[in-house]
Design brief:
Elements (H helix, E strand, L loop, with lengths): L1 H30 L3 E14 L6 E9 L4 E13 L10 E8 L2 E8 L1 E13 L3 E9 L11 E13 L2
Antiparallel strand pairs: 1-8, 2-7, 3-6, 3-8, 4-5, 4-7
């Protein structure tokens, strides 16, 4: 008898707790913002070095956001730079900035990586800068150094 009373009390307590958790989840859902996509674009930058001596290339792309509530940026980076005998190995440097503040930077020699960023309450332009140095070595069977940078910009606004 005592055991069934304790079990019933625990069951009632758990059920009331579940109701409390459910009601607090509902209030959280009501406060969550909903976004509508207003812009989606891809930007591609790639280069293969065919020169025997080191050479550099660069590019800078700016996204004019016009006071967006959310900007999602996905960077797909591929890089291959061989190790030459007479000078330093080449590289790809990719930097993401907002209002001259560096949000992300990476340097790659031989890899493929993807990075994604959600930036909220964007009021300033977002700039992606690419700098690379590389070469080609005729004495090796490897291809010339190369990089590929694919950037996806998605801009969202809050649904009222």
């Amino acid at each position: 008898m005592i055991r069934s009373t304790i079990t019933a009390c625990l069951l009632i307590g758990l059920l009331s707790l579940v109701g409390f958790i459910e009601s607090s989840n509902n209030s959280h859902k009501e406060n969550a913002q909903e976004f509508e996509q207003v812009f989606d674009a891809w930007d591609n930058h790639s280069y293969q070095f065919w020169n025997v001596a080191p050479m550099s290339v660069g590019n800078s792309s700016t996204l004019n956001t016009s006071a967006s509530d959310l900007v999602t940026i996905t960077l797909e980076l591929s890089a291959y730079f061989h190790e030459p005998i007479f000078w330093e190995q080449g590289y790809l440097n990719c930097t993401l900035k907002q209002n001259n503040e560096t949000l992300f930077t990476t340097v790659l020699n031989r890899s493929q990586v993807t990075h994604s960023f959600d930036i909220f309450d964007v009021t300033d332009n977002i700039t992606i800068t690419i700098q690379s140095t590389g070469s080609d070595d005729d004495a090796t069977p490897e291809p010339g150094d190369f990089f590929i940078v694919r950037v996806n910009y998605q801009v969202f606004t809050t649904i009222n």
